[in-house]
Amino acid sequence: MSITLESGITLNNGEVIPQLGLGVYQMPDSPATVVTITEALNCGYRHLDTASLYGNEREVGAAVRGCGLARSDVFVVTKLWNADHGYDRAIRAFHRSLALLGLDYVDLYLIHWPVQGGRLESWRALETLWEEGKCTSIGVSNYMVQHLEEVMGTARVVPAVNQIEIHPFIYLRRKSVIDLCREAGICVTCYSPLTKGVRLGDSGLGALAEKYRRSSAQMLIRWCLQKGFVTIPKSAQVARIRENATVYDFNISDEDIAAMDEMNEGYSCTWDPGDEP
Predict the structure, then answer these.
(1) CATH code of the domain containing 155
(2) Beta strands in the chain (DSSP E)
(3) Residue 161 falls in which region: left (phi positive, over 0), alpha (psi -120 to 50) or beta
(4) pLDDT (0 to 100) of residue 117
(5) Residue 162, exposed/middle/buried by CB under 10 A (0-12, 13-18, 19+)?
(6) Domain of 38?
(7) Low-confidence residues of the chain, pLDDT below 70?
(8) Residue 188 domain-assigned?
(9) Cα Rg for the chain, rounded, in angstroms?
(10) So what's the pLDDT on residue 277?
């Protein structure tokens, strides 16, 4: 069974990112992970999101190299971890990730968190890597308004992507950073779109899911897509990976999208970077 996924979103540098991807956070560094990722690629996923922190770059690379697809058909994302900030350290960390992946380049390299100390130098390193063709796009993750304003104040290259936690239960709290990204031409990627499962039993969400004869997870993913975000739901179960991708054969009405927007509780299922200086 092959799922036909939409082509994606054009970034501010002309590259195209598939709008629906597979997050691989907490997938182990084991042969089973290679099998799971390969199954996802076989059923239509073309966007894989990993990070140095996740410890499974080797498995992601093995799946990409062994799946039978052209390298250009799979969009691979990885990230710079907090301990590797600074120009020289960031360059070394990138090449370490590239070696683990076993690839010639990555499609998107992100600064994982806006930690204090060296993050502007780290961005300068990412610009160098981009200029050298080692990564076709560069961006950031968990950057709020103050962090984006800082990097854009000195950057030669505007970030192509900002990856942040977004779902209806935190949407309104994130509006200021979403609006800034849109004004600056920065694509927003939603991580933890399923709230790590914590809000899947919400009664309002459940009522809408029943109305559309869909799962709560499918409703959250479809909401992200219709809002114009990239989204990377995570699952290690092939059945759920397939279900999460079966979201292109229905539309949520404008009225119900607005109702989902109003589910906002200011709820974050991850550490909130909003107050990080």
Answers:
(1) 3.20.20.100
(2) 9-10, 16-17, 22-23, 47-49, 75-80, 108-111, 138-141, 161-165, 187-191, 230-231
(3) beta
(4) 85
(5) buried
(6) 9-195+228-237
(7) 1-6, 274-277
(8) yes
(9) 18
(10) 65
Which one, of 192, 204, 206, 158, lies nearest residue 273 by Cα? 192
Q: What is the rounded distance in angstroms from the CA atom of residue 223 to the CA atom of residue 217?
A: 10
Domain membership flag for residue 242: no
- CA 117/CA 80 separation, integer angstroms: 14
Strands 9-10 and 16-17: antiparallel
Residues in a beta bridge with 142? none
**What three-state secondary structure class fits 60?**
helix
Amino acid at 225: L
Give pLDDT, residue 4. Answer: 57
Would residue 274 count as lying in a domain? no
Instruction: Look at residue 258 and tell me if it is in a domain.
Output: no
Task: Please tell me the predicted confidence (pLDDT) of residue 5.
Answer: 67
For 9, the token pair is: 């979103």
**Separation of alpha carbons 59 and 48, rounded Å:** 11
Q: Give catalytic residues, as residue numbers.
A: 54
Distance (Å, whole) CA 253 – CA 226 = 10
CA angle 250, 243, 226 (to 5 degrees): 40
Place of tokens 């909130």: 272
How far apart, in Å, are the Cα atoms of 153 and each of 86, 139, 158, 159?
A: 18, 15, 10, 12
C-beta atoms surrounding 253 within 10 Å: 12
Bridge partners of 257, per DSSP, are: none
How many domains are there within the chain? Answer: 1
